[in-house]
Design a protein that fits this description.
64 residues; Serine Threonine Protein Phosphatase 5, Tetratricopeptide repeat; Ankyrin_rpt-contain_sf
């Protein structure tokens, strides 16, 4: 299978990127396939933390 939690140069995983860009359907898909919600980027932020901080309400509601 494919690795879902491979980070980019700043430590952001595909789930992190989808969540912080309000790509709700993609974030749901990645999460349901086992992407790590607790993976921290280079600044110590998780997808949930960054989503709440950025005001991405739709994704944050799904995570909670």
């Amino acid at each position: 299978g494919i690795e879902l939690d491979v980070p980019d140069d700043s430590g952001q995983t595909p789930l992190f990127i989808a969540a912080t860009n309000s790509y709700v359907d993609i974030a749901k898909f990645l999460f349901r396939k086992g992407a790590d919600l607790n993976h921290e980027n280079d600044h110590g932020m998780t997808p949930l933390h960054a989503t709440v901080q950025g005001g991405h309400v739709g994704v944050a509601r799904f995570f909670l």
